[in-house]
Amino acid sequence: MQQISKYFEKANLPLVLTNEPFARGRGVEEIFQMTIEGKKREQFKIFKGVGTDVRVLDVDKDRRQVLLFVKEPKREFTEVSYARKRGKTFETIRQTSEGIKRYLAGMDERHLFISELPHERGKINTVEDAHRWLKSVEVKDTKKKKDSKVIRQGEWFFADVNSEERLVINEKVDWVLPQRALPTRGKPHTADYLLNVGEKTFIKGKVRHADHKTIKFLDWQRVYRNTERIANTYGWID
After folding, report:
1. What global pTM score does this model have?
2. Helical H segments across the chain, by residue range
3. What are the distances in angstroms from CA 198 to CA 124, 165, 168, 195, 207?
4. Pairing status of strand 76-83 against strand 88-95
């Protein structure tokens, strides 16, 4: 089995490979587990499980990122979690998936991250492939246009609005909401002004996030989320 530690070292990424599962529940001693732990000194933590193929496909030293390949048998396990507010312990029956999963992991501005990549978007064999496929079709099309800018903050992309979108914004200006957060699983990205029109979201002003540098837009921007898989099989993947 590949010694993945040396590839994380090559990317200057801290990694702990543990022989003990860190998920709580029954059957977790066999399944693949991955997380980020620590606050002042973050590090990746991986438990390979039993019969799991875990490999690093590519290393980008400049970005300090790796592309991780994971393939494991289909297995059922019971995840145990504790809800402090309700003072109760909950058990959830889950299953691992048989398909190959790829993760982009590494450093993004100030903190480590793990992003499960889309399965259906084509070959992803390099870190560069991963970055390309994390961009939606709309973001790619916008970047091709002259005088159009696309700026990223975490999983969100912000692009200049076109003339049709500007008309929509002007018509719905009364719908604008101040200090609203974009939907996310973790820490929120908060915009000074936000407007939802159908399935489209627009923001203006400062966009803040604890893990990223604040960016400011003097004009309205169309918001696009990256194509990262949201419904992770494992609830403890950060």
Report:
1. 0.87
2. 5-10, 127-133, 137-144, 163-171
3. 32, 12, 11, 10, 21
4. antiparallel
Q: How many CB atoms lie within 10 A of CB 45?
A: 17
Interacting residues of 42 by C-beta distance below 8 A, sequence separation 6+: 14, 36, 111, 112
Q: What is the pLDDT of residues 194-233, one digit of tens each?
A: 999 999 999 999 999 988 999 999 999 999 999 998 654 4
The answer to whether the CB of 157 falls within 8 A of the CB of 226 is yes
**pLDDT tens figures, 104-153:** 999 998 899 999 998 766 689 999 999 999 998 888 877 777 667 899 99
CB atoms within 10 A of CB 72: 22
Token pair for 225: 């989320």
- Edge-first strand order for the sheet with 177-182 is 150-153, 156-160, 212-225, 200-209, 189-197, 177-182
DSSP letter assigned to residue 188: P
What is the mean pLDDT of the segment spanning 29-56? 94
Sign of the CA dihedral with 133 first, then 139, 141, and 147 last: negative
**With contact defined as beta carbons under 8 Å apart, do 28 and 20 qualify?**
no
150-153 and 111-116 strand pairing:
unpaired
Domain ranges of the chain: 5-133, 137-225
Closest CA relative to residue 218, chosen from 192, 187, 188, 182: 192
